[in-house]
TrEMBL record:
<protein>
    <recommendedName>
        <fullName>RWD domain-containing protein</fullName>
    </recommendedName>
</protein>
<dbReference type="InterPro" id="IPR016135">
    <property type="entry name" value="UBQ-conjugating_enzyme/RWD"/>
</dbReference>
<feature type="compositionally biased region" description="Basic and acidic residues">
    <location>
        <begin position="37"/>
        <end position="48"/>
    </location>
</feature>
<feature type="region of interest" description="Disordered">
    <location>
        <begin position="29"/>
        <end position="69"/>
    </location>
</feature>
<dbReference type="InterPro" id="IPR006575">
    <property type="entry name" value="RWD_dom"/>
</dbReference>
<dbReference type="Pfam" id="PF05773">
    <property type="entry name" value="RWD"/>
</dbReference>
<feature type="domain" description="RWD">
    <location>
        <begin position="102"/>
        <end position="247"/>
    </location>
</feature>
<feature type="compositionally biased region" description="Polar residues">
    <location>
        <begin position="49"/>
        <end position="59"/>
    </location>
</feature>
Length: 331
């Protein structure tokens, strides 16, 4: 893994990210209905063919995160191999490179620590951004769950509570959140972007199935089709932030699943939609952590001294104010 990817540490949030090292581009030869990639060595060819979607079945563990990083980087590598970059003049390459640098600089100024910029072999630029979805009101999350009936015959095989059977009862579980886990957009910029080709990209979402993520990917593709030759990254991110929920038909309620569905087959789409008993606690924890983070960063009025303090220092201020108040009474 470390022989094929570059480790990048952003300046502020000190989190590790990995970006793909782009191999030399080669031609692609269709064979029957499947596309086979021709490469120089057998090991490299096998590596590209073995690229598959990686779901976050391990939950929020370091091993699971590494698997996701590995899967996304491999997928970007695969996508870059399926398209032959056009030969461009040195002047055009210089123009594209400058446009890419300007675009990423602007994105960094707007999105700050949510954006991680990396570099790849061969002069290709890459980045990953966590797109926080705009939610005006509290959202209701619902999921169909199944409970086992008690009259299952003794000695029979155990039945999964997430799959409907003749011995299970279906019920709808709902909970409310103010914040959703972000959409993760990862891009590798070919040297022909933006003059001739769009960025290679993947979209990863924990709480959406692959079909819904594929719908988002199709929308990003349409932006490039409508305005070819123009910078498109900011438009992609802004649309994912402000319009992705309404585009998927979600207003004030999001229904998780359906589960146990076949993968959509979109090479751009990564789904972390695992099981309701995994997704629901994970979404709840993210919402609680985000609410706590916002509370700590915003000003709060002390109910005792009526002065404003940052949330993370409010508890200390309350303790101090209460001590002074009680001390005054004792005197």
């Amino acid at each position: 893994f470390f022989n094929n990817y570059t480790q990048v540490r952003p300046k502020k949030n000190n989190k590790l990210a990995y970006v793909v090292k782009t191999p030399p581009l080669v031609r692609v030869k269709p064979q029957d209905e499947d596309e086979q990639v021709e490469r120089g060595g057998g090991e490299e060819e096998s590596k590209v063919k073995s690229c598959t979607s990686t779901n976050s079945a391990n939950g929020p563990t370091e091993e699971g995160d590494n698997n996701d990083v590995n899967g996304v980087a491999s997928r970007l590598e695969e996508l870059s191999l399926l398209t032959q970059e056009p030969e461009l003049s040195e002047e055009q390459l210089t123009i594209n490179n400058q446009l890419q640098e300007d675009e990423l600089l602007a994105m960094e100024a707007i999105y700050g620590d949510n954006l991680t910029i990396g570099s790849a072999d061969g002069g290709h630029k890459s980045f990953q951004i966590h797109v926080h979805i705009e939610t005006l009101d509290e959202l209701t999350i619902s999921a169909k769950l199944y409970s086992l009936k008690e009259n299952v015959k003794s000695g029979g095989k155990s039945t999964s509570p997430r799959a409907p059977t003749q011995h299970s009862d279906e019920f709808l579980y709902t909970f409310a959140v103010q914040h959703l886990p972000p959409i993760v957009l990862t891009c590798l910029l070919p040297k022909s972007y933006p003059s001739h080709q769009p960025p290679y990209f993947t979209i990863s979402v924990q709480w959406l199935n692959s079909l819904r993520i594929s719908n988002l990917c199709c929308m990003l593709d349409s932006f490039w089709t409508d305005t070819p030759g123009q910078e498109v990254i900011y438009q992609w991110v802004d649309w994912l932030h402000s319009s992705s929920l309404s585009y998927l038909g979600f207003d004030k309620e999001i229904t998780l699943g359906p589960y146990n569905m076949p993968d959509a087959g979109d090479r751009h789409a990564f789904s972390g939609n695992v099981l309701p008993e995994v997704d629901i606690p994970s979404m709840m924890k993210y919402n609680d952590d985000k609410c706590h983070e916002i509370f700590n960063e915003s000003l709060q009025e002390c109910c005792i001294c009526f002065s404003e303090h940052a949330g993370n220092s409010l508890s200390l201020s309350l303790s101090l104010s209460l001590s002074l108040f009680l001390g005054g009474i004792n005197k």
